Structures are given as structure tokens and as C-alpha cells.
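Q: Here's a chain of 168 amino acids. Please give me its 3D structure as C-alpha cells.
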Amino acid sequence: MNHRTVLHHNHMDSATYRHHYCLKWQEWLAKQDFGLVVTLNFNRDTTPAGARRTFGSFLARLDRRFLGRRWCEKGWERTFGVAVLENQETNLHIHVAMRLPASAAALSFSEQQLYLESTWNQLVAGGQCDVQVVYDRAGVAHYMAKQLTRRGYNETFILSTEFHNHNT
């Protein structure tokens, strides 16, 4: 190995780094406050950028429903979600660890599920939304992290706060 090789080697691209990153990400996610895990399928071709935009619209519609007309001014009351994009080259879909706004707690799980499914179907005709109650956060974190060890995938998770207006 010469000095040029050392200078151009990107340690963040190594399998060891990606594995360590994945484990730390799982630990972090398991500590977050979420009660639902949601899988959002497009059932059609989409890009990571398109999936990100659609996910942002999905969150905005949920917040509008549960927080009312001035939902975008409600900061930490909004829907919280950590999402990962999976199978980006074949059947891109999104897994989300999610906490709905407190006002949604008055609804039964089946009412929450119905609203999430209908909201997704309004945005993605022919898409599917699978909603499950979380009983094991560490298990959900492990499942969601399964592709983070792939080259380039460690940059594909989305925090719902990316869509917040941080000036309010």
C-alpha cells in the first residue's frame, strides 16, 4: 500500500464501518419513542428523491388531520417518524418507526390504521400501507437496519423533523 492508496481510501465505505454504523443506528432507534411500525409500498417505480417527497406529504397530511389547520406551527407535537428506504434498485419501499400526535391516542388502533392506510392510498394510487403495533423496539430497529450495511444505504434514513419548519 502506498501513500496514494491511503489518502484515497474512504474508511466510511468499509464493511467494518458500515457494520459498526448499523449497530449504533439500531441502538439509537431502539431508544426512540415510537409505538407503530409502518411499511409504505409504492407498487410502482419511484426514486429515492420521489419516495422522500411522498413521505413528507404523507406526514403533512397526518399532521393536518391530527393537529388541525395550523399543524405546521406545532413543532414537537407533530408526527414523529424514523424511516428507511429499502430495495432502492428493485421494489423501493419505506419502513417507518412512528409516533402519532397525542390527539391520535384517543383513536383505537384500527381507526389509526384506517386513517394511515387511506392517507397513503390518496397519495399513492395502488400503493399499500401496512400498520403494526410495536411490541419490541429493539426487534423493529434490527429489522429496519438490515440494509444499512449495504454500500450507500447508510445515508437513506429519513427523520420526520426534516420536513418541519424550524423557524416556528
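Q: Can you summarize the key feature?
A: The radius of gyration is 18 Å.
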